[in-house]
Amino acid sequence: MKFFKLFTPFKIRNMTVSNRIVMPALNLNLANNGFVTQRLTDFYVERAKGGAGMLIVGGCYIDLYAKGVPMMISIENDEYVPKLTEFAEAIHKAREDVKVVCQLYHSGAYTFPQIIGKAPIAPSAVYSNFSKTTPREMTIEDIETEQKAFADAAIRAKKAGFDAVELCANAGYLFSQFSSPKTNKRTDEYGGSLENRLRFAIETFELMRSRLGDFPIGYRISGDDFVPESNTYKEKAIIAEYLGKHLDYINVTGGWHETKTPQTTMDVPEGCYTYLAENVRNRVSIPVFASNRINNPELAEQVLMSRKADAICMGRALVADPYLPLKAKKGDLRDIMNCIGCNQGCFDAIFKMVPISCLRNARAGNESKTEIKPLKEKKKVMVVGAGPGGLEAARVAAMRGHEVHIFEKDDKIGGLLNLIYIPPGRNEFKRMIDNYQYWIQKHGIQLHLDEEVTLDTVKGFNPDAIFIATGSKPTKPPISGIERDNVYWANDVFSGDAPIGENNVIIGGGATGIELALYIAKYGSLSLEAFDFLTNYKALEPEIALEMLHGRRNKVMVLEQLPKLGSALGKTTKWVLLDKCDKLGVKFHTGVRVKEIGENFVSFIDTKDNEQIINDVDVVYYATGVEPNKSLFREIKQLGNIKVETIGDARKPETVLEAIHRAYKLANNI
């Protein structure tokens, strides 16, 4: 594919950016009490080497009232400048033409009182659903203090060697709170009309410009707050026009943290929010960046060619593969390690207040300690099982120069990935299979399909090292009637080995149970392609087609023994899946014990020790856990003369992220 726009330079005020790939600010939780660390520097050095045109770093909190977690970056006073200077120098040394931008952060009402030891400040004393607190209304003195804090922080960023600053005004933070009628109830010159609500921002820009001169100033804005009573995309276009006269670029993203409209999860269609950037671009004359779910260079080029934006923010895509820009420029598109929007190592980690990682890229956030090690002695490596852990072990071992063979009992690679990508909104897991198919070719890995490995196979092959990635097997819960003909393991549905009834019961409300519930509830619904065709040709009324597209088809009841659902699901994904279940009419009972499965009923004991019966049940599915498939490992271990390691579910039930990280580490050390 040819790229006509993505790798052309563009100007921001007096600054030339070498290409149109921008890494937006991501909280990485890699700082230490506000100070830049070597891990943080290593992370961005790798992205600079990878070829992005601009790296936006932050958020960098500007004072105590803006303070986030201790692992965020601080720029609140001069003691942080030396480390920031070293950081900027390291980035520019890694690649001279990369531009590094410091994002200035103030969360206003979103600041947690537990962190700053007092009530946060905001335009008005309006309760925050995010921080679960009511902030103190800012006085005029507070306003002037915070405006000066922004200007002071910008001067520090310039002094430290950054190429520009960006004001963090998205996600429901302080600038958003001033501009929104939902959170700004003031009756003075900073509230009421839109002009008044934008006064705080404009005065801040003017103060910064008076002290910064021609130093570029950008603004990260929500293109639509997606929160009731707040600003929609219509108002945001007007706001951008007002503010754009004082700025050098506008970086457009999605809604506030508290929005009920998913922004970054896997089920958000790629590029679906680019209309927000286009909406702003139509009203301003400065460069506009598009963000959210633009994870591949082909789509980025399409957005640019469609004149929806002037540059593309690719955050998680560059976490997954820092060298995406260089690979795309060279035409090596198949070699890109695609982000799949899972959020497991990035956004979920941030909410857990742990350092960033990545399901796809085991090096992310720990670059210096995970470099591919040079080969000391070439070995014959046998990988048993072509699931994600086995495939990653094979990739890394082959990259280092070992002779690698993968043995898989199925007729295709991927293992459980072939089932994981089937539920609605999980299709991007298939990209992992596509990636590994390419790397098997590229690195000369020998693939043996339709071959179940036995101890005799191992003896005949005589490897120097073996990775056992044989996965797991389901555990049947001890329930009366579990052996009935109408009872199936959850994954049998995804593989096509189980029927789907009109009235269904799922035992187990973990990740698999919830995804199965969505799949069954939607099974047989109108497809998007059919919806588009039928409505375009007026073969079906739009409201009827919408009902066929979104309406539930089958009844589903989920029974979970634990008090909460989706214990293994990350915070950023679970609420989306449960919300979709609610819309589809899926019913849940938690804290219950299933007593019996009958011919057409399921009985269970509820939280009040009462027995309840679900009648007219067609099919029952159990999603109650798995156990490692360790039989081959035990047999090989007894040989005693071969180095053998287990990966993924063959060791213990693990997430895909855990399996891949362990596989990378083990394969990098043989």
What does this structure look like?
The protein has 670 residues and is of the alpha/beta class. The chain folds into three domains: 10-369, Aldolase class I (TIM Barrel); 380-473 and 627-667, NAD(P)-binding Rossmann-like Domain (Rossmann fold); 478-624, 3-Layer(bba) Sandwich (FAD/NAD(P)-binding domain). 34% of the residues lie in helices and 17% in strands. It is built from 24 helices and 28 strands. The strands form seven sheets. Strands 3-4-6-9-10-11-12-13 form an eight-stranded parallel β-barrel, surrounded by six helices. The chain has a five-stranded parallel β-sheet with strand order 16-15-14-17-28, sandwiched between helices. The protein has a five-stranded parallel β-sheet with strand order 19-26-20-21-22. Strand 10, helix 8 and strand 11 form a beta-alpha-beta unit. Helix 1 (38-49) packs parallel to helix 2, helix 2 (81-94) packs across helix 4 (140-160) and helix 8 (233-244) packs across helix 9 (274-281). The longest helix has 21 residues, at 140-160. The radius of gyration is 27 Å and the shape is globular.
